[in-house]
C-alpha cells in the first residue's frame, strides 16, 4: 500500500500527504479493490463475488476494472472517472492512465481481446486502446487517440486512428509530470 501511495505522490503534484492520498484518491481505491477482486477471480467459485466487488468499486470510484485484468505494480489512475479496463487487459509496472481511458476489446471471442501495456506507459485523457494490441515500454499515448495497432517501445502515439513516431531523444524522454516543475518541494510533507 505504501508503494501505491508513493506512486501517486510521485505522479501528482497536487498530492499533499500520504493520508490525503489514501483517503481521497479514487484511482488508488479502484486499484486496491481490483487487487482483492483479482485474487477472488482466480478461484472459480468466487468469480461472481469478484464481479460484484468490481461493480461496487465502479459505483464508488467511476473506474471499471474487470477482475480478470492483470495489473502490475504502481499503476496510477489520475482523475479516474470513466476509465474502463477489460478482462484480458495486461498492464505493466509504473503505468499512468488519465480519465476516460478505455482498454477495450474488438472481438466477442473468448480469447485475448484487450490490450497489453508494457512498463512505463502513459495514456492521455480519453484515449481508447482497442483489441489485443501491445503498447511498448515507455510509450506515451496522446489524449483522445484511438490505438488499434501495436506501438514499439519508446514511441508517441497520437490521432484517430493513432499513428506513432519514436521519441526524439532526451527532450522527450523526461517524465511527463515532474513534480519539481510544478510544486515547491517545501510543501511536500
From TrEMBL:
<dbReference type="InterPro" id="IPR045304">
    <property type="entry name" value="LbH_SAT"/>
</dbReference>
<keyword id="KW-0012">Acyltransferase</keyword>
<dbReference type="GO" id="GO:0009001">
    <property type="term" value="F:serine O-acetyltransferase activity"/>
</dbReference>
<dbReference type="GO" id="GO:0005737">
    <property type="term" value="C:cytoplasm"/>
</dbReference>
<keyword id="KW-0028">Amino-acid biosynthesis</keyword>
<dbReference type="GO" id="GO:0006535">
    <property type="term" value="P:cysteine biosynthetic process from serine"/>
</dbReference>
<protein>
    <recommendedName>
        <fullName>Serine acetyltransferase</fullName>
        <ecNumber>2.3.1.30</ecNumber>
    </recommendedName>
</protein>
<dbReference type="InterPro" id="IPR053376">
    <property type="entry name" value="Serine_acetyltransferase"/>
</dbReference>
<dbReference type="InterPro" id="IPR011004">
    <property type="entry name" value="Trimer_LpxA-like_sf"/>
</dbReference>
<dbReference type="InterPro" id="IPR001451">
    <property type="entry name" value="Hexapep"/>
</dbReference>
<comment type="similarity">
    <text>Belongs to the transferase hexapeptide repeat family.</text>
</comment>
<dbReference type="Pfam" id="PF00132">
    <property type="entry name" value="Hexapep"/>
</dbReference>
<keyword id="KW-0198">Cysteine biosynthesis</keyword>
<comment type="pathway">
    <text>Amino-acid biosynthesis; L-cysteine biosynthesis; L-cysteine from L-serine: step 1/2.</text>
</comment>
<keyword id="KW-0808">Transferase</keyword>
<dbReference type="InterPro" id="IPR005881">
    <property type="entry name" value="Ser_O-AcTrfase"/>
</dbReference>
<dbReference type="InterPro" id="IPR042122">
    <property type="entry name" value="Ser_AcTrfase_N_sf"/>
</dbReference>
